[in-house]
Design a protein that fits this description.
This protein is an alpha/beta fold. Helix content is about 50%, strand content about 10%. The chain has helices at about 5-15, 25-40, 55-60, 70-85, 90-110, 115-130, 140-150, 150-165, 170-180, 200-210, 220-225, 235-240, 255, 270-285, 300-305, and strands at about 20-25, 50, 65, 165, 190, 215, 290-295, 315-320.
Length: about 325
């Protein structure tokens, strides 16, 4: 039995689904959960509301998601208010602005003190640019003046977002975590299949757990959960430390399930695409719904999609792999099952 099927059994056992919300890592898993619920129920039922993490955070926080272009435009306006005539032009600011948005998101997601973070970052940059016995150049002074603006920029930027009732995910998550009341709308929320839970989301989940309004279900395996040296279980072990009661004996799918692994040489990118399509057509054509094609190189996705036969318009799903940016807890890891 797959994790989605186990989750469907748990949800159906709750009875009244109209006031139940299910929070999953992404939208794709929600699609398969709906199919599993329909198959398990065997009759017409009213499905629970199913959200991705991002959708749930914005829905419960009361803030709307602002697109990246609007965020950058607002951030540049704030930057110009502080920098004045010394401000970088927009085209030079955009790459830095995207990095700033990512940093602001991390500060909010991890509920950090923005003043401490940006003051510490400024001091680091001062040390990195310091050369004993040499005076600062004009470029160095301009560079450092930008870092000195980060804290006031963050404060004004988030104030404007708050006034607009819009923001990025970390901002909305921090607002949700700061609420003392438990948001209305659902009698129960099921969080399923999560991996790396940020402190802001953890704070919100804890309030629901204390009010007996949350159920936590984990898609994990003993192979990496119970092995302290296995990196794939790093975040899951942190979750077990935070909510020990939500963890039962971890299953042993990797140990007990039968596996067939083939190593096939395909030296060039295009030959990898053709080999993958040939294997799917000859071996897995009758199991499209349970087939995942994982590309080691994301740039091969477009050639792959262009090479699909006409009859394969919908049945396959694809995953591109890329190294994730490290967080303060380490790098993100996952497992396919």
């Amino acid at each position: 039995m797959t994790f989605i099927e186990e989750l469907a059994d748990v949800i159906l056992a709750k009875g009244d689904l109209r006031h139940t919300a299910v929070v999953l890592p992404g939208r794709r898993s929600g699609l398969y959960l709906k199919k599993a619920l329909a198959a398990k129920a065997g009759k017409t039922i009213l499905l629970p509301q199913i959200f991705s993490i991002e959708e749930y955070i914005f829905q419960q926080s009361g803030f709307y998601k602002m697109d990246e272009t609007s965020l950058l435009t607002l951030l540049y306006a704030v930057y110009k208010d502080y920098a004045g005539t010394t401000a970088f032009p927009l085209d030079e600011f955009l790459p830095t602005g995207k990095t700033l948005l990512s940093d602001f998101n991390d500060v909010d997601d991890y509920m950090l003190d923005a003043e401490e973070v940006f003051t510490y970052l400024t001091r680091i940059k001062e040390i990195e640019g310091w050369v004993p016995g040499e005076a600062e150049t004009t470029l160095q002074k301009r560079y450092m003046s930008f870092y000195l603006l980060l804290n006031p920029m963050y404060k004004m930027f988030t104030e404007k977002l708050n006034d607009k009732g819009m923001g990025y995910q970390g901002f909305a998550s921090r607002k949700l975590a700061a609420r003392n009341d438990v948001p209305d709308g659902f009698q129960h929320v099921v969080f399923a299949g999560l991996n790396a839970v940020t402190p802001s989301l953890e704070a919100h989940i804890n309030k629901l757990v204390l009010n007996e309004k949350a159920t936590l279900l984990w898609d994990t395996d003993s192979m990496y959960l119970d092995n302290d040296q296995h990196e794939a279980g790093h975040f899951m072990r942190m979750n077990r430390a935070a909510w020990p009661a939500a963890f039962a004996q971890a299953p042993e799918y990797f140990k007990n399930s039968r596996k067939t692994i083939d190593f096939i040489g395909a030296p060039l990118g295009y030959s990898q695409v053709q080999t993958a399509l040939k294997l799917i057509n000859t071996r897995y054509s009758d199991a499209f719904a349970d087939t995942v094609l994982v590309l080691a190189d994301e740039s091969l996705l477009i050639p792959l999609l262009s090479s699909l036969p006409q009859e394969w318009k919908d049945p396959l799903r694809f995953c591109g792999y890329r190294k994730l940016r490290p967080t303060r807890h380490g790098e993100l890891h996952g497992a396919f099952r």
